[in-house]
Amino acid sequence: MARPFIVVPALFVSSGTSAPLPVDLFAQAIRQILIASLGNLVGQAILRSARSGLSGRAPVWWGGARRLKLAVVGPKPWPVGPGQESVWSYPRPPRAERVRRRAVVMLAGVVVVDTDDLVRVLETSHPPTYYLPRAAFRPGTLLPGTRRTRCEWKGVARYVDVLAPGARRADGGWWYPEPDPRYPELTDRVALYPARHDRITLDGELVTPQPGGFYGGWVTADVVGPFKGEPGTNWW
User: Fold this and answer.
1) What is the DSSP letter of 235?
2) CATH, residue 215
3) Residues 188, 113 share a domain
4) What is the spatial order of strands in the sheet that 67-69 belongs to?
5) Which of 85, 81, 173 is nearest to 124 (CA)?
6) Do 98 and 133 have their domain in common?
7) Domain assignment present for 208
8) Contact at 8 Å (CB) between 60 and 20?
């Protein structure tokens, strides 16, 4: 019986041969890479998985300049029904596109913003993130925060607190003062975390937050997963 071959997500490994490597040798090489970047715990887990044959789910293919290209391992997408789209059909790098849908955001009984001028960002495994015009927000509802993060695609994000009478949501949203030139559509637009507001609707449908709390995607009935954000999905 042929020996299994290891398959790991999105790695390129130099090789002196034009054929896939047996699992033990290949797993040892992968383990060294993982130890260097992610620590011994993950490396040991991958090695155990490889030796047990659990990683040999798909063939390995190769191409060009003595480099092996490995199949990407991901979850099984959920079935897509009429009028739905799968987050596994979204691109990476992400795509920004203008859409005409109505978003209404409520906080402490106050409409913070009500607009049909939206830009959504689509990225593999993520439900769409919607960016709303800063000018559409009720005056005095956005206060600059101190937190900053960097997106590898879109640039440096600055966070905002969202205010309403008697309520304040720290880091309730973020925006890109100088978005990457590939994403001019995001200029002067703010994205909001659904979980940090009392109610967000999209075309009248109540929005569900993307799992996990770290990402700000909006889950609605017309989008199917599985979605990145749950425990164990960091590799997606």
Assistant:
1) T
2) 2.170.150.40
3) yes
4) 12-14, 67-69, 61-62
5) 85
6) yes
7) yes
8) yes
For 198, the domain range is: 85-224
Paired sense of beta strands 85-86 and 223-224, if any = parallel
Let me know whether 211 and 175 are in one domain.
yes
**Cβ-contact 173, 163 below 8 angstroms:** no
- Looking at 24, 45, 69, the residue that finishes a domain is 69
Count how many domains the chain has: 2
pLDDT by 10s per residue, the chain, length 236: 444 334 444 443 333 333 344 444 455 556 555 555 554 454 455 444 444 333 333 333 334 444 444 455 579 999 999 999 999 999 999 999 999 999 999 999 999 999 999 999 999 999 999 999 999 999 999 999 999 999 999 999 999 999 999 999 999 999 999 999 999 999 999 999 999 999 999 999 999 999 998 999 999 999 999 999 999 998 89
**Phi and psi based region of residue 155 (left: phi greater than 0; alpha: psi -120 to 50; beta: remaining):** left
Burial (CB < 10 A; 0-12, 13-18, 19+), residue 148, is exposed
What's the whole-model pTM score? 0.72
- Provide φ and ψ at 131, rounded to 5°: -110, 125
**Is residue 236 a part of any domain in this protein?**
no
Are 64 and 90 contained in the same domain? Answer: no
| Residue 69: burial class (beta carbons within 10 Å; 0-12, 13-18, 19+) | middle
Contacts (Cβ under 8 Å, ≥6 apart) of 106 = 112, 197, 198, 199, 200
> Phi, psi at residue 35, to the nearest 5°?
-60, -40
Largest CA distance in the chain: 70
